Amino acid sequence: MAKIRLTKNELKKQKDSLKMYKRYLPTLMLKKQQLQGEIRLTDIRLAELKAAKSALDESFKPWIGVFGEKGFFTKDILKIKYLKTSYGNVAGVPIPIFEGAEFDISEYDLARTPAWLDGAVESMEKALLLDLEAAIVEEQRKRLDHELRTTTQRVNLFEKVKIPETKNKIKKIQVYLGDQQTSAVVRGKIAKSGLAKK
Questions:
Q1: pLDDT tens by residue, the chain, 198 residues
Q2: How far is CA 177 from each of CA 2, 46, 156, rounded to the nearest angstrom?
Q3: Model-level pTM?
Q4: Cα(195)–Cα(16) distance, integer angstroms
Q5: Are 128 and 80 in contact (CB under 8 A)?
Q6: What is the β-pairing status of strands 93-105 and 78-90?
Q7: What is the C-alpha to C-alpha distance for residues 82 and 28, in angstroms, rounded to an integer?
Q8: Are 80 and 63 in contact (CB under 8 A)?
Q9: What is the 3-state secondary structure (H, E, C) of the chain?
């Protein structure tokens, strides 16, 4: 702890600091709670997306073997044209928000391709949408986690360090100033009794 000056001005400065810490602490605690709530919501959304992807993967199992048929299903048949996102703000944290995606589907001859190809392309599109949304929600979670860590550190700094430290400084200054005042009164009385004896 840095050496403090034991003066009335320093006492006022420390009291002002304490008042400021006590004023900002509830705001930080509220922000921390809000971030924790948002993180819980992103966890729920990630679990929903994971469950939907698992269900979709299960629906692929009966006919996944046909994907190997030569020449019908290639990796170029479905491409992401562009990803639609926007940005929102949660407790002062800018986060990306998934709004969908547009796909480019290569043209294929309906007469020369098997009937399952349309369903496969549609299912792959759904799977890609789920993966893209999960990636955006993961990014949200990462940003919220980072901000929560920072906010928690600030709350702890105020609660466990700054406020107790400032209270101790105030107490030390008040004790010193009280001692000085008592000493001055005693010296005054001694001087007064000395003058009275003369």
A1: 568 888 899 999 999 999 999 999 999 999 999 999 999 999 999 999 999 999 998 887 777 666 666 655 556 677 888 889 999 998 889 999 999 998 887 776 666 666 666 777 788 889 899 999 999 999 999 999 999 999 999 999 999 999 999 999 999 999 999 888 888 888 878 877 777 776
A2: 19, 60, 31
A3: 0.77
A4: 43
A5: yes
A6: antiparallel
A7: 38
A8: no
A9: CCCCCCCHHHHHHHHHHHHHHHHHHHHHHHHHHHHHHHHHHHHHHHHHHHHHHHHHHHHHHHHHHHHHCCCCCCHHHEEEEEEEEEEEEECCEEEEEEEEEEEEECCCCCCCCCCHHHHHHHHHHHHHHHHHHHHHHHHHHHHHHHHHHHHHHHHHHHHHHHHHHHHHHHHHHHHHHHHHHHHHHHHHHHHHHHHHHC
Q: Which two tokens stand for residue 28?
A: 């930080």
